[in-house]
């Protein structure tokens, strides 16, 4: 199970940190991604962190503004977001990549981030 | 740069079969073999229903099947039921920067 928190309303240009608490599985065996969905739109991949935290990748739309991290001792992943703009308004999902399949086999319920003045 | 293209909407009547296409444009051959499909109800998180083009996770109905022809992957739902009324998203590998790419999503309406 994955559970996101930290969403809310934030002013343009400000920062926000999302958390993703994992339970029920061996967290440090799995790569974790963040995927977002703007209101009424499709899914957009945002970032990846490898199981050990050594590999990180970002979508071009968030590169240099967002930072993904994890604390395996706390079974938690994070997404630090800065320089937020209206285009970042979305539900943000924490997602587990299956360790054998090239697919996302577990999704959190999502947390809504609204960027508005 | 990789891209996945889905129809915006499809519809069908209960008992019928429908197919949702996902056209893959990519220079990475893996993109054509690693397509996954997700079902999403309004206000809910997506759920994996097909991975690696045509494989079903445990617990997914065999009414859902995946296939591939050329550069197009497809999701077929047979024996349509009211509960299949949802959004469906395809996904695959992208390139070295955009690691995963999603299609725009398809709204399935069960008439």
Written description of the protein model:
The complex is a heterodimer of chains A (117) and B (111). By secondary structure, chain A is an all-beta fold. Helices cover 0% and strands 50% of the residues of chain A. Chain A contains no helices and eleven strands. Chain A has strands spanning 2-5, 8-10, 16-22, 32-37, 43-49, 56-58, 66-71, 76-81, 90-97, 104-107, 111-115. In chain A, strands 2, 4, 5, 6, 9, 10 and 11 form a seven-stranded mixed beta sheet that branches. The model of chain A has no long low-confidence stretch (mean pLDDT 96). Chain B is mainly beta. Chain B is 4% helix and 47% strand. Chain B has one helix and ten strands. In chain B, the strands form two sheets. In chain B, strands 2, 4, 5, 8, 9 and 10 form a six-stranded mixed beta sheet that branches. Chain B has a four-stranded antiparallel beta sheet with strand order 1-3-7-6. Classes of the chains: A mainly beta (117), B mainly beta (111). Chain A binds chain B through residues 33, 35, 41-45, 48, 57, 59-60, 93, 98, 101-105, 107-110, and chain B through 30, 34, 36, 38, 44-48, 51-52, 55, 57, 89, 91, 93-94, 97-105.
Tags for this model:
heterodimer, A: 117 residues, mainly beta, 7-stranded mixed beta sheet, 4-stranded antiparallel beta sheet, B: 111 residues, 6-stranded mixed beta sheet, 1 helix, 10 strands
In short:
The complex is a heterodimer of chains A (117) and B (111). Helix content of chain A is 0%, strand content 50%. By secondary structure, chain A is mostly beta strands.
